[in-house]
Automatic annotation (TrEMBL):
The keyword Transport is assigned to this record: no
Signal sequence coordinates: none
Pfam families documented for this protein: UPF0020
Domain annotation Ribosomal RNA large subunit methyltransferase K/L-like methyltransferase: ranges: 136-270
Domain of life per record: Bacteria
Record carries keyword Membrane: no
Keywords: Methyltransferase, Transferase
Lineage: Bacteria, Bacillati, Actinomycetota, Actinomycetes, Glycomycetales
Protein name, as recorded: Putative RNA methylase family UPF0020
SUPFAM superfamilies assigned: S-adenosyl-L-methionine-dependent methyltransferases (SSF53335)
GO molecular function, one term: methyltransferase activity
UniProt-listed GO biological process terms: methylation
Length: 345
């Protein structure tokens, strides 16, 4: 059995306070349930040389596994443990672009980018193995995408990213941001803003960018897509065809009005009611074998209610131990948890 030690990024402690190590430990444990080729055991915190690490054991991690583990949300550095010595393992992140893609935009109501990465990782690992995830090309949908934190993280991984957002200012701000970013980075791209129509009726404005890491790939048509539509999420089924997406990932409205979180729809609809109406619409858009990962405020909706809604929409809720231990405090009004469900094949 080889012992591994992971140093957690200091930023994880700022995001999750005392929950940082637990969050990342559970993320690794979820990866170990199916996405990794090899088994992972004994994930726990250990202090080495006065510094806390996450340690785990495995007898069988493949090179592909190490590449997948390189993308764990809180990872700072990864080592093999040999007695009292740590040998660095070169990490190979999937990131295709500069990390300012996920970090530049700052605004009230932004879902923290590290948490977003964790949610995307856990959702992807619940549906697909390392090979499929590392290959890029998955289609990801955030049906309440705000100013695009999930879309940006998905794009970093080489996935195609689609979002729906009801707030016009968010829609416009994200469209402007992504086009400026692509220009600033001199990435060859096409951008188009148009109206989405179904059966002759307007659904909403849409901005779509198609881009590639290199000019050559762009010319060869090997492009990635980011698309955002300004519409009520309940109309997602009019925007996208059934079974369009491999993954659906969203940080849903917290149902609170406070300084750090601005939410447009809170006054017209409570989060639980909105989810009851929206989850069946989103489920239609998920491909068989795909997964949906949602984070929400447990002060507004209980975990059992979330599970019932997902099951009623035909999905299997994942309830192995690590999935049940992601709950964490955001602030006095928000206690956040996440839930993942899979669409049967
Ligand atoms: C917790 S925020 C998600 C923020 C996003 N992850 C980000 O980082 O920008 C929830 C989002 O849901 C949006 N929203 C609320 N009700 C909606 C609806 N009915 N249809 C579409 N979006 C909605 C809000 O405007 C807000 O942007």
């Amino acid at each position: 059995m080889q012992q591994y030690a992971m140093l957690i990024a200091p930023s994880a402690n700022r995001v999750f306070a005392r929950s940082a190590v637990r969050m990342v430990a559970n993320e690794i444990a979820v990866l170990g349930l199916g996405a990794l080729d090899g088994a992972v055991e004994g994930v726990e915190e250990r202090v080495l040389g006065g510094v806390p690490y996450l340690v785990f054991r495995s007898g069988s991690l493949s090179g592909r596994d190490v590449r997948l583990l390189s993308n764990v949300s809180g990872l700072f550095a990864l080592f093999e443990v040999h007695g009292t010595m740590l040998e660095p393992i070169p990490v190979q992140r999937m990131d295709r672009y500069d990390d300012d893609l996920v970090s530049i935009l700052k605004y009230a109501g932004k879902t923290n980018e590290q948490f977003t990465k964790l949610l995307l990782n856990v959702t992807a690992a619940s549906a697909f193995g390392a090979e499929r995830i590392l290959a890029g090309g998955l289609k990801v949908f955030d049906p309440m995408c705000g100013r695009g934190t999930t879309l940006n993280q998905a794009a970093m991984y080489g996935f195609d990213a689609y979002g729906v957002e009801v707030d016009k200012r968010d829609f416009e701000a994200y469209g402007a941001f992504i086009q400026r970013w692509l220009k600033d980075k001199r990435l060859k791209h096409k951008a188009l803003t148009s109206r989405v129509k179904r059966d002759g009726r307007g659904v909403g404005q849409q901005t779509r960018v198609e881009f590639a890491v290199t000019k050559e790939l762009h010319r060869a048509g090997e492009t990635q897509v980011i698309e955002i539509v300004n519409a009520d999420t309940l109309r997602s089924g009019e925007v996208y065809r059934r079974r369009s997406f491999d993954l659906i990932v969203a940080d849903v409205p917290y149902g609170v009005q406070h300084a750090a979180v601005r939410e447009t729809r809170e006054l017209s609809r409570r989060p639980t009611e909105l989810l009851e109406a929206a989850i069946p619409v989103w489920a239609e858009l998920l491909r068989p074998g795909g997964a949906m990962g949602l984070s929400w405020n447990t002060y507004m909706t209980e975990r059992s209610e979330m599970a019932e809604m997902l099951e009623a929409a035909g999905m299997e809720v994942l309830d192995a131990a690590p999935y049940l231990d992601f709950e964490h405090r955001v602030d006095h009004a928000i206690n956040r948890d996440l839930i993942v469900a899979r669409m049967p094949r």
